[in-house]
């Protein structure tokens, strides 16, 4: 799938799941789409496999399986909260991009998985940090971008670069982006109204317990 196709898939997930504020909670998207989410400890307890065995077969962050017709995501809950959020968004990418099927119920290490992981990372970046929302929230720096969407420094750097490139030309909106702006209009208006400094983080990041 092209980057454009991946981007539009991420937008469609936000629209169809009726997400209305940032930071995005991947667990909310999973719940609304009947996707099960468990920690690595649950998998190890159920299967009797050791941590080393899970890491060797599936990696240190997370993986998805199709079990009994249900998408089931397992993630390493010992990682930082930011890493957990990215991992879950990445695994949702595998699901919504059609990487996990009855014929391929799980992905193991290998060249094909590496290629699909690149697509899943692209999906995660666009799900957690849509450029149009950042633009109309008048984000002014990489640091503010990171605070608004609660993403890692590495992800913020890449998304700030993408946003800056679009801003250098006419910021034309895709149809799905126009729908996103309409859906997030109350959030954008609130963010702009509450803004008091150059690096303001949204109140949700400051006052609520961290949730994924």
Give an overview in words.
The protein is mainly alpha-helical. It has one domain. β2 and β3 form a beta hairpin. About 6% of the residues have low confidence.
Low-confidence stretches: 198-209
Number of domains: 1
User: Largest beta sheet: what is the strand line-up?
Assistant: 1-3-2
Global mean pLDDT: 89
Keywords for this entry:
212 residues; mainly alpha; three-stranded mixed beta sheet
Secondary structure blueprint with pairings:
Elements: H1 3-16, H2 26-32, E1 36-39, H3 40-47, H4 51-58, E2 62-67, E3 70-75, H5 81-96, H6 111-128, H7 131-136, H8 142-149, H9 153-167, H10 175-183, H11 185-194, H12 203-207
Give me a quick take on this structure.
With 212 residues, the chain is mainly alpha-helical. It has one domain. It is built from twelve helices and three strands; from the N terminus they run ααβααββαααααααα.
């Amino acid at each position: 799938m092209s980057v454009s196709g991946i981007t539009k898939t991420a937008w469609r997930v936000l629209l169809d799941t009726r997400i209305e504020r940032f930071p995005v909670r991947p667990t909310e998207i999973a719940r609304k789409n009947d996707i099960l989410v468990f920690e690595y400890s649950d998998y190890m307890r159920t299967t009797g496999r050791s941590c080393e065995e899970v890491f060797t077969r599936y990696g240190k962050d997370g993986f998805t399986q199709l079990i009994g017709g249900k998408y089931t995501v397992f993630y390493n809950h010992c990682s930082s909260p930011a890493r957990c959020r990215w991992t879950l968004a990445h695994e949702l990418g595998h699901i919504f991009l059609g990487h996990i099927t009855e014929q391929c119920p799980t992905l193991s290490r290998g060249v094909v998985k590496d290629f699909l992981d690149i697509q899943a990372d692209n999906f995660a970046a666009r799900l957690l940090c849509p450029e149009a929302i950042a633009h109309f929230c008048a984000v002014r720096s990489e640091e503010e971008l990171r605070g608004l969407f609660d993403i890692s420094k590495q992800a913020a750097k890449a998304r700030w670069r993408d946003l800056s490139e679009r801003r250098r030309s006419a910021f034309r909106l895709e149809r799905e982006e126009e729908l996103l702006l309409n859906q997030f209009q109350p959030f954008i208006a609130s963010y702009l109204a509450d803004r008091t400094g150059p690096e303001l983080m949204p109140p949700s990041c400051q006052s609520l317990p961290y949730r994924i």
